[in-house]
Write a structure and sequence with these properties.
Shape: elongated
Number of strands: 0
Number of helices: 11
Distance between the termini: 60 Å
Largest sheet: none
Strand content: under 5%
Order of helices and strands: HHHHHHHHHHH
Radius of gyration: 23 Å
Helix content: 40-55%
Structural class: mainly alpha
Number of domains: 2
């Protein structure tokens, strides 16, 4: 006698599972996650530009020197805190020459609340001395020269060259850019230097500066570190954060 066929058991929905919220994406973000790399990169750039059309550097500054100092102080510190500290600092020492002759205890007190204040005070005074003695009081405009300033690495140099001088020397990679670039599947690297190298290969050079500003603002407003607001994110259809191959930083 023929054995009766076993009936398939219907899959049960988990109790209390809420339907997935729809994401209000723009028409340019209708591309699927697995589209070709150039299409994805273009769609990501277009949506970031649509979301943050006029975004600028969040550090308050009036010239290249103030931006250099502010960026040095921003290491392991929020931009909000730096913006609270720099007005008094620049009132006391408004130029590189003035800061070059400042006493370390006075500088330390002025930047104390930014954290690591002893090292930062030493660096900004050292940078002021190099700018004054070697570059005639003007912040240099090349990566090679910027890296001669104490406390200045590629991130700080890219910030100053891009935001003040409009020179796309590289891509600023802070914690937001590193985290979100990985979530979007633009890189698998885990160090700022290697992430920057990947982004420079993927992005058009004319977008290097604004890309960082846009991603930093997106990281503060939507794609936050601990609880990203994916349901509100119009980049979600392009994101690979849920793909186990791409782990967030």
């Amino acid at each position: 006698m023929a054995t009766p066929k076993k009936m398939a058991t219907p899959k049960r929905k988990s109790a209390g599972a809420a339907p997935r919220a729809s994401v209000p994406a723009s028409s340019k973000v209708a591309t699927v996650r697995k589209s070709t790399a150039p299409e994805r990169v273009t769609a990501i750039l277009d949506e970031l530009q649509r979301l943050y059309p006029d975004v600028q550097c969040a550090l308050n500054h009036r010239n290249a020197w103030e931006l250099t100092v502010a960026t040095i102080l921003s290491a392991q510190c929020t931009d909000v805190r730096v913006n609270l500290v720099t007005p008094a600092l620049f009132r006391a020492f408004p130029t590189p020459r003035a800061m070059a002759t400042a006493s370390l205890p006075e500088l330390e007190e002025l930047v104390r609340t930014t954290g690591f204040f002893r090292n930062k005070a030493k660096n900004i005074r050292g940078a002021a001395q190099v700018v004054t003695e070697k570059f005639g009081g003007k912040v240099p405009q090349t990566m090679e020269e910027m890296l001669q300033l104490p406390g200045v690495a590629r991130k700080t140099a890219n910030v100053v060259l891009g935001s003040w001088y409009g020179i796309a020397s590289g891509v600023v990679v802070d914690t937001h850019v590193l985290r979100i670039s990985r979530r979007l599947g633009l890189t698998r690297q885990t160090t700022p230097e290697k992430v920057e190298a990947d982004l420079k290969r993927l992005l058009p050079q004319q977008r290097w500066v604004q890309f960082s500003h846009e991603v930093i603002h997106h990281g503060r407003a939507v794609c936050v570190a601990r609880k990203p607001r994916c349901a509100e994110c119009t980049l979600e259809p392009l994101c690979q954060a849920k793909d186990k191959t791409w782990h967030s930083a």
